[in-house]
């Protein structure tokens, strides 16, 4: 159910990219130079907001399908959560609305996205009762050390 919003939103991003790019332009104009400055000189980011909206749509569709089908649900949830930040900043700038009704509507959408982000965070961190990668890595390291000590002890015993 959580994925359904992103499947619909991703499809809308692809369908209405030129219109949505007008909303996205103020965000891309601020974010692209910052990210561009943090990447190697050989990497140049596109500045076209239509391309960014379409890329967001493709990412939301792919990650939404991943979440909906249970394939890589944690990764899909994390990716979807990451797409919410620029999307929310572009579409729901309630602090800029001058009309009281418009401000209330944008605030409602902003808070809805914040709630979605919370749900995605829970889904991204949920291991469904299975140990996560960090836990498995720690325990594999611990087990490997224990095995090394045991092998060392056995080797010393054979030498004596």
TrEMBL record:
GO terms for cellular component: membrane. Keywords: Membrane, Transmembrane, Transmembrane helix. It holds the Pfam family DoxX. It is found in: Membrane. This is DoxX family protein. It is a multi-pass membrane protein. It comes from Nocardioides simplex (Arthrobacter simplex). The lineage of its organism: Bacteria, Bacillati, Actinomycetota, Actinomycetes, Propionibacteriales. InterPro entries: DoxX (IPR032808).
């Amino acid at each position: 159910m959580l994925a359904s919003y992103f499947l619909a939103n991703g499809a809308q991003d692809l369908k209405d990219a030129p219109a949505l790019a007008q909303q996205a332009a103020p965000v891309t104009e601020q974010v692209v130079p910052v990210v561009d400055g943090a990447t190697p000189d050989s990497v140049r980011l596109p500045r076209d907001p239509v391309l960014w909206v379409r890329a967001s749509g493709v990412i939301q569709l792919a990650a939404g399908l991943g979440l909906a089908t249970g394939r890589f649900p944690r990764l899909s949830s994390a990716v979807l959560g990451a797409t919410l930040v620029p999307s929310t900043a572009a579409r729901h700038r309630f602090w800029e609305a001058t009309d009281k009704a418009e401000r209330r509507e944008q605030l409602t959408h902003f808070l809805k996205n914040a709630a979605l982000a919370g749900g995605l965070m829970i889904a991204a961190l949920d291991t469904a009762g299975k140990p996560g990668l960090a836990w498995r890595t720690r325990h594999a390291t611990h087990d490997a050390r224990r095995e090394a000590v045991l092998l060392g002890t056995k080797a010393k015993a054979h030498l004596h």
